[in-house]
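Lab notebook, bench 4. Still working through the backlog of constructs that have no structural model yet. Next entry is a single chain of 310 residues. Request: give me the structure tokens for it.
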Amino acid sequence: MTSSFDSDVVVVGAGPAGLAAALTLGRSMRRTLVLDSGAPRNAPAAHMHNVLGHDGLPPAELRRRGRAELAAYPTVAVRDEAVVSIAPGDGFTVTLAGGDDVTTRRVLLASGVVDELPPIPGLAELWGSTVLHCPYCHGFETRGTRLAVLGAAPHAVFIATLLRRYSDDVVLLTNGEQVEDLLDVPVHGGPVARLDAPAIVTFADGTTLERDVVFAGGPASQHAPFAADLGCALLPGGSVEVDEFGRTSVPGVSAAGDMARRATLSGVMAAVTVATAGGLVAAVVIDQELHAEDTGLRSPLPERAQLSAA
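Model written out:
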């Protein structure tokens, strides 16, 4: 059966989820092709945290080490080439930007998401340096500094109060919107005109507020259209819905990393370790499903559940 396909599994994306999946598949002797468009979500970040054994390591170094480890597994190949389309049929046909078609029995989507930043001049240029998004990723390093949180949504209000454990100087910037007064967190309601390095906030009336770090964020959208093109169920907010085994609503297609969520865990934070774990689980399940197909044995995995958004 396997000889009629170029690969057992095509992994789209070479971030933590994709590389972890490829490592597991390589150790399972599965013919695996990893395709990477070269636009990781955490590229602007100088360091990553909450990654056991690698706390403070640059994200690019983790990806480099992951690729180097894959070289030990002869059934795994990595290509720096973008995917153009994925078409179902007898398995799947993956068309690459260079024009090649690759046939595969399974597809694992790990192409990530793109952050949609507030449209404030200067913010995008400071993203990942002095404009940060996650107190669990960066809060400890900002302790004792002058902080601001940009936003008026309940999540921004919550984060502003949470950051008080790191600093006595936290300001909530509501950018012209109204919020209720916060305990121990002053509010500046003026519209924000721009941000300048290192983290100087200029308001529409010309006044400024000097900060060391601004926490900001927004929604994220799928980095690539393949999940939607294949008909995978999507959750509100755009995440690909998966079950606890990384399976999407489309048979043969799995998803892992920041792009994928279980409906019951849609609020779980995005993190390197979460993405890595998702890639490993999805890969193990793919291998077991393929083994069941090849041997005719009953898989020990539960049947694919009907996903809520399907």
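Notes after review: The first helix runs from residue 16 to 27. The longest strand covers residues 101-109. Flag for follow-up if needed.
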